[in-house]
Amino acid sequence: MEKLRNYIDGQLIAPKASKYIDNYEPATGKVYSLIPDSDETDIELAVQAAERAFPKWAGLSGEARGKIMQKVADGIEARMQEFAEAEAKDNGKPVSLASHVDIPRAVSNFSFFATAIRHFANESHYMEGVGFNYTTRKPIGIVGCISPWNLPLYLFSWKIAPALAAGNCVVAKPSEITPYTAYLLSEVCIEAGMPAGVLNIVHGLGTSAGDAIVKHKKIKAISFTGGTKTGEYIARTAAPMFKKLSLELGGKNPNIIFADCDFDDMLKTTIRSSFANQGQICLCGSRIFIERPIYEKFKEAFVAKISKTNVSFPQDPNAQMGAVVSKPHMEKVLSYVELAKEEGGTILTGGKQIHLPAPHDQGYYLEPTIIEGLAYDCRTNQEEIFGPVVTITPFDTEEEVLMMANSTSYGLSATVWTQHLSRAHRVADRLDAGLVWINDWLVRDLRTAFGGVKASGVGREGGWEALRFFTEPKNIFVKNG
Ligand code: NDP
After folding, report:
1. Which residues form the pocket of ligand 1, taking CB atoms under 6 Å from any ligand atom?
2. Domains, in order of start, for the chain
3. For residue 191, what pLDDT is reported?
4. What is the pTM of this model?
């Protein structure tokens, strides 16, 4: 069976303790490779390599670093199909989704920050008659990047690319559930001539390898995307060490549909925003609020379309949805369907596991599920499910829908559907969210700030925000002569 290796100091090496974890294929439920079960010894090696590499990497011009990063982007692009197939096998998502969304976006992440760093300017503030200030921004040193399983290479590269562009050396850990494309990325980095130690990819569990990154004294900043509970733990552990923290956490996003929306456009996009990637995107709109005059029309059309979804194995070119990422996750999602029933919800479609024919009979397939009749403040409507499950709820007034939309502890993103210009702006302005889409969903411009409020996180990624996070400002004052 294939054994993945860590990428440390420019080499692909086995974990020091020679321990491995099984890597499951969600489409079949079978183990198909082994992942290093790295611990603090492996993280220590990665930190030492990063420490050696840092002076030279930080001393290169942004342009020179960008050239190497562009080679990484080109290297992924050249192996697009292989990366897409690997991502689908590891995660359970359709190959078509990985080849249209995940992998192209990983390419863009590297090429965007490879050039963004050339435009990143220092600030200067002139004080009339006194002097002036200029603020330099230097790399932090060694930084840690920890990412989740839902958009494996997409989110991994979204952190690594700005960190490297800003001149830092990185110790990164992908999710142990979806490590494969991070492994392929190490091969690409070697081919691209990434200097040894600049990027180190260490595989393993969050509680051992991840924890060792968070606790290492020489790692000065942590960029983390994952669950709110893990984020809480990381904040508690890293804050007393005065580490810089960027935390992108969970969501329970509202999708607000007013009666005057473009119905067909809304329906098409709402299908995606509910169930893309089996509902395992932090930005999916899992609570759908519909203005009462179109509630029945929406319900009928939405249920009719969703009940015909083709849930199939990732390699099926006609698959609209694939498998969810793991057995425990599938069980968690199903437990929420049971909870919804206990809370008085009606399952309009879905709610069950799907058993495909062999060899996919042990895979983790779920029916896309629509639930109605739940109170806005019940657990099903307040807790993150992170699977193919949405609730639909009617509303009568703007005030009421804003109250329901803002009622959760989360505040990542929101979607608003209306043709009424001033209402669109008014509602967007009052939503507790870091990102709002009006009449669309998941349109991303990599220059914009990305992240959430409340329990959805601290800090922002994207564009200058990411480059600011991965640099330390120093203000220097000069008196007028
Ligand atoms: P987890 O929080 O379980 O894990 C995220 C990463 O952290 C994994 O690499 C994990 O390793 C690691 N980890 C776990 N425990 C620790 C620890 N004690 N110290 C250091 N690292 C640790 O999240 P999931 O992987 O389950 O991802 C799903 C979550 O991610 C959802 O809540 C989702 O909303 C959120 N998310 C947020 C996004 C955003 O931008 N706001 C985007 C995408 C997802 P391991 O896999 O080995 O456990």
Report:
1. 146-150, 155, 173, 175-177, 205-207, 210-211, 214, 225-227, 230, 233-234, 248-251, 282, 384, 386, 412, 452, 456-457
2. 2-249+456-478 (3.40.605.10), 253-445 (3.40.309.10)
3. 98
4. 0.96
